[in-house]
Specification:
The protein is an alpha+beta fold. The protein folds into 2 domains: 151 residues, Muramoyl-pentapeptide Carboxypeptidase, domain 2, CATH 3.30.1380; 45 residues, LysM domain (Membrane-bound Lytic Murein Transglycosylase D, Chain A, Roll), CATH 3.10.350. 46% of the residues lie in helices and 16% in strands. The chain has 8 helices and 9 strands. A 5-stranded mixed β-sheet has the order 2-4-5-7-6. Helix 4 packs across helix 6. The longest helix is centred in the first third of the chain and has 28 residues. It is globular.
Length: 243
């Protein structure tokens, strides 16, 4: 009798677990929970794009002077709060400006950026060893106070994730949204939206801006402007936009 009752209870529990799993899993599949795999993907993309993991503030300044990082100042659609180094990759600036305008138009609220390029020497104690903040391709956003704004922002992050141009996570300690922008993919995504079809060139050994200008029927000045280069130095593996 007792064995039969135990078996029945076991069957009921197993059934409830099964029902719960199938009811919840579709929701969990489309979430911003984040994972080790997500961090590995972000780190892998940063390395594929030959991004440096900056060690300190002095290196951040060097990358700003070289044109690899640009100033993020805020505008009518977004503002910065507590950002130690207000610089990021140029494509990240484009991402922030496009997202914040759409967000402001939809909700009437400003986006708040709380972190951008953060060198290794200033990473918090609980930061992942895979964090891409030191490369300038990541942003932290403050979580909006209203449910409507949160829903709009999270749905937008999930939609962009599905296109493969970002990885987004809702963090809890402290609470914020972390977004890694896959800069090359995002740049192509925006250009397709605009109807542009830019040419890309991955720099090989022996390439110079002068040789590339001849190859693509353009000028060194135009290549530097299109890629925000402050000098004529380029390196193998670097991807350049050819105007």
């Amino acid at each position: 009798m007792r064995l039969a009752l135990t078996q029945r209870l076991g069957l009921i529990v197993a059934t409830l677990v099964s029902i719960s799993f199938f009811a919840v899993s579709p929701i969990l599949a489309a979430s911003l929970r984040g994972s080790r795999d997500s961090m590995l993907k972000q780190n892998r993309v940063a390395k594929q794009q030959n991004y440096s993991f900056l060690r300190n503030g002095a290196q951040v300044r060097q990358f700003v002077d070289a044109g690899y990082l640009v100033k993020i100042s805020g505008n009518r659609d977004y503002e910065l709060s507590g950002v130690s180094h207000p610089y990021a990759r140029p494509q990240v600036k484009t991402f922030i400006e496009r997202l914040s305008k759409q967000y402001h138009d939809a909700t009437g609220e400003k986006l708040v950026v709380t972190s951008l390029t953060r060198p290794l020497s200033q990473q918090p104690r609980n930061a992942s060893d895979l964090s891409v903040h030191p490369t300038g391709m990541a942003i932290d956003f403050r979580i909006p106070p209203t449910r409507t704004a949160r829903r709009w922002l999270e749905n937008t992050f999930l939609s962009l994730e599905s296109t493969g141009v970002i990885e987004a996570t809702r963090e809890h300690h402290p609470a914020h949204y972390h977004v890694a922008v896959f800069t090359e993919s995002y740049e192509l995504y925006v250009q397709k939206l605009k109807g542009d079809t830019p040419r890309k060139h991955r720099v090989a050994d022996g390439d110079t801006l002068w040789s590339l200008a001849r190859q693509y029927n353009t000028s060194v000045k135009e290549i530097k402007a299109a890629n925000r280069l402050s000098s004529s130095s380029i390196y193998p593996g670097q991807t350049l936009t050819m105007p």
